[in-house]
Every structure is written in C-alpha cells, then in structure tokens.
Amino acid sequence: MLSAVLRNDQKAIVYFFYTKYAATFQYHIYKLLGYSANVNDLVDELFLYLFEDDWKRLRTFDPSKASLNTWISTVSYRFFRDYKRSKIDLNGVVTINDQWETMRRDWVQRCDTSLRMDIISAIDGIKRERDRAIARRLLLEDCEYCNVAEEFGLTVDYVYTIKNRVLKQLKQSLKDYA
Predict the structure, then answer these.
(1) Are 126 and 171 in contact (CB under 8 A)?
(2) Between the CA atoms of 118, 95, 158 and 104, what dihedral angle is there, to the nearest 10 degrees?
(3) Residue 143: CB partners within 8 Å, gap ≥ 6?
(4) pLDDT, tens digit, 9 for 90 and up, residues 46-71
(5) Contacts of 153 (CB under 8 A, 6+ apart)
(6) Of 55, 86, 117, the domain-final residue
(7) 19 and 71 share one domain
(8) Considering the domain boundaries, does residue 95 fall inside one?
(9) Would you say residue 34 lies in a domain?
(10) pLDDT tens digits, residue range 70-100?
(11) Does the pTM exceed 0.85?
(12) Same domain, 27 and 75
C-alpha cells in the first residue's frame, strides 16, 4: 500500500489517509485539539505536509526501525502537536502563531533594532551550540528547514523539534519583553 501511495495512486492515498489511519489521526486530533477541531481539514494539512517534495517525508520511513503504524502515528502526533503549538498565544509574549510561516520574512525585516538585539542576545544564551546555530539560521537568516537539515546532517522533522525547543527557551528568556 505504501508503494502505491508513493506512486500517487489516488485510491491508495484516499484509503491511506481517510480509512486505514483515519482513527489514528482522529484520536490525535481530539486528544490534542479537542472535539471542536475540523478533522478533515487537519488530515488534509497532514497530507500536504507528507506530500511535499514528492512524498519526501514519507520516503524517510524505514521498516527496519519501526512499523508503518508506529511511524505514521508518531509523525501525525508530532504534526498535530506542532499545529496546536502554532495556535497558542501566550498573552503577548513573543509568540509563534499560524501566521509565522507566511510572515516570518516580513517579521525579520520589520523587527526593530532593539527587539532584534534582544532576540540575538536570547539566542546567544542557548546552551547547545548546534541549537544556537540552528536558531540563527531559522530565525535570523530566514533559512528553509530543509536547507538547515541538510547543512547540519539532520532530518527536517528533527530541525522542527529543535526549533520548538529553542522557541520555548526564547519565550522564557523574553517573557518580560512587552
């Protein structure tokens, strides 16, 4: 079935996303986002995420490391968790919301000098050297996740994990900024 999805077989794709793993996706969505979430829209978003670059992320599945069920459950949970995190507003603290991905270039360019310096100082305070470098590349230099992953020899998913860890540290460092 996975090979049929990778060949863009429409029936296999519909079966994969809306039948075989529908319960897994629904469970994660309801667990993380509650019953008011639109399941079909979020599954569509997951589909687009996995479909990007000719199924690049789905092609990273290695059956020697985990079963497809485990892998898809982990990936979908992380995707929906990150989606939920992107919707959280921490009462005016430097936040990452659903506009971040589309507006990050504008944000970096319009960011006033003092705020930018505070962000640079907060990034410099990150303990792990690799995390600092990745934060600089993503937040200050506006690099794409896939480029950063390639540069550091990581998967794109792990770069997202590092970004979320860094953002949590930055939010803590900048909590008094307002």
Answers:
(1) no
(2) -80
(3) 137, 151
(4) 888 888 888 888 888 888 888 888 88
(5) none
(6) 86
(7) yes
(8) no
(9) yes
(10) 888 888 888 888 888 776 544 444 444 444 4
(11) no
(12) yes
Which range of residues forms the domain containing residue 106? 100-173
Amino acid at 158: Y
pLDDT band of residue 106 (cuts 50, 70, 90) is low
Backbone angles phi, psi at 98, to 5 degrees: -65, -15
Question: Among 115, 111, 87, which residue's Cα sits nearest to residue 100?
Answer: 87
**pLDDT value for 153:** 93
Lowest mean pLDDT among 95-99, 112-116, 130-134: 95-99
- What is the rounded distance in angstroms from the CA atom of residue 127 to the CA atom of residue 111? 24
Q: Does residue 109 contact residue 160 with C-beta atoms inside 8 Å?
A: no
Q: Are residues 7 and 82 in the same domain?
A: yes
Looking at residue 136, its amino acid is R
Rounded Cα gap, residues 156 and 172, in angstroms = 25
